[in-house]
Amino acid sequence: MERVLIVDDERDICESVAMILEDEDYEVDSTTRGLEGVERLIEGDYDAALLDIQMPDIDGFEALERAKKGGSETAVIIISAYGNVENAVKATRLGAFDFIEKPIDRDKLIISVRNAAERSRLRRENEEIRRAVEPERRILGVSDAMKQIREMIEKVADTDAGVLVTGENGVGKELVARALHHKSSRRDRPFVEVNCAAIPSELIESELFGHEKGSFTGAVKQRVGKFELADGGTLFLDEIGDMSQQAQAKVLRALEDKSITRVGGSKKIEVDARIVAATNKDLEAEIEAKNFREDLFHRLNVIPVFVPPLRERPEDIPVIAEAFANELAERHKKNPPVFAESAVKLLQSLKWTGNVRELRNIVERIIILVNKEVATSEDIKFLAPSEKFSIDDLIEESESFQQFKEKAERAFIVMQLEKHGWNVSRAAEAMDIQRSHLYTKMKKYEIEKGAE
Question: Rounded to 5 degrees, what are φ and ψ at 98?
Fold first, then answer.
């Protein structure tokens, strides 16, 4: 249950606001003393707080400043009977999430607290992700290409210029987006990710811009969209090449106006989100095919960043493999293996259709299954994905033409699945077969993600 703190010297207001929020399933604490409110904000774990300006022992602005200096990251909503522009500006400058005038409007209160709590939830999730991926957040590699990407990030991170990250599945496009956010002045604000390919086209607008209650069947309450949640931070639009034309038009308008309108609403909401987009598609070809808007492409592609496939930078493989080995060994409570020169050469000889993501999977398998201080090529050869073997290997291992055909078909299916990030629908489309037929083949050949 989400927790809210109310700090107001008028007990009646504390009680009336608490009743409203408890009806919305919030757990509510309150105090009529500003200094106690500061202590609770610093020591407590609240999702949102309501802080009055006029209090006898300490005013709300000073309370907010003290709480921030004390390390509180709770989203604070300033409330005041003096709703002038000067107070609103000061509250924003001090880091308040919102400003509400007294008498407090019930609907505005609920919306503001809901948005503040959602912002706090995203902050916590981002912090958990940051801790979880800290070892792999560094963009590793000694190749010229990776050095240039790191230099580019340093140059553009602290600007608001749009960045378009391109490259195959698994090369680390999200890693580039997170690095841009982490090195920018927005690092303490939310990093919000949207996988445009994973959201049905009829729901993408609601996901991005939010919706009002009753705007369509199933919209039982108001929803805040990703643009609003990313306000002040970074919005990462992954797989943007799969976004519908209608949604593309609305995203373009949002970028031009720096505001959005929720589905079913009429009010414009100002948003300040830095946009980083990514795709594995050739957007210029998609423009030619009338699948992607040229004006949106130019809006996004201010700073282009291309992440080359792993097979084109084999010199990066030892560095990345070592980093994964150290991280994953700690997770599995084992000693990280050292890769012998023969093992490194074998890894560098593979095609890596799944790129860095595939390398991570193989390193994890080595840690779990080989479990040696020094891993040689003989230790890891059996872990190499089957499609990496040559035709000669398949011929040598096959006792009949039928067996050869089945081994080749299995290898081809695995390659297509890894190429498309194990998205069965996309792999089936690329292979020009029905998805159900592909599932049947996967079952026949016992193909499972992570088992190759």
Answer: -155, 170
> Which residue type, as a one-letter code, is found at position 149?
I
Question: DSSP code of 304?
Answer: E
Q: For residue 452, what pLDDT is reported?
A: 46
pTM: 0.61
Q: Which domain holds residue 75?
A: 3-121
Q: pLDDT tens digits, residue range 130-177?
A: 554 444 457 889 999 999 999 999 999 999 999 999 999 999 999 999
Tokens of 64: 């907010």
Each residue's pLDDT tens digit, 334-387: 889 999 999 999 999 888 988 999 999 899 989 988 878 899 988 887 665 544
3-state secondary structure at position 31:
strand
Query: Does 451 fall in a domain?
Result: no
Residues 159 and 114 in one domain: no
The rounded distance, in Å, linking the Cα atoms of 452 and 448 is: 7
Which distant-in-sequence residues (6+ apart) come within 8 Å of 237 by Cβ?
Answer: 194, 196, 243, 251, 275, 276, 277, 278
Backbone angles phi, psi at 367, to 5 degrees: -60, -40
- Same domain for 19 and 98, yes or no, is yes
Question: How much is the pLDDT for 404?
Answer: 83
| Same structural domain, 152 and 200 | yes
Report how many domains make up the chain. 4
Inter-axis angle of helices 11-23 and 106-137, to 10 degrees? 70
E strands present in 344-411: 374-375
Q: How far apart are CA 253 and CA 424, in angstroms?
A: 33
Report residue 409 as tokens: 């078909």
Domain end point (choices 366, 384, 402): 384
